[in-house]
Design goal:
The protein has 5 helices and 6 strands, in the order βαββαβααβαβ. The protein has 178 residues and is of the alpha/beta class.
Length: 178
Amino acid sequence: IVAEHRVDGLLIQCNLSSELRRMLPGQLPVVFVDHVFPEIAADSVVMDFAHAAYEMLDYLWALGHRNIALFTDTVDRYYNYQSQEGYRRFYQVKGLSLPCPELSQPQNIHPAINDQVYAAYVARLMAMNPRPTAIVFQGNTYALGMMPHLRRAGLSIPRDLSIATLNDMGGIKEFVDP
């Protein structure tokens, strides 16, 4: 469709194949939704994850949480950077150092190894003293993937650990202990 010039522009809300990435520049107007491709000269409409992370931390702080970890990935550099920036700025404004730097480094997530990444993360979390009282996840799929590992470690959510995500929380209630 693009190669045959059968469209006047594209509104794209997905990842792009390398073939389409090569075709787009200069071909037609493009606007990306929830994605940033620095190599393509196009507008993007994205959520301000730095602000969202800051606001989520502020909310958790108001609830009494002080030792909050941030779970991000190495996959989407734009959102990872934004989330990390909001996390750093929040604690900087509070005049505090990051409470969980060893847990808040971007995780190398890939479907083939996710369970291993989650298990290793929970092992590091359980070895900490004091442990975080909350984790902010970059996305709900990470929170949902982590929850069975947290439960196997004997943690009850939200009694022992609060979980928050920077996007839709649909389905997470199924995993929360009564």
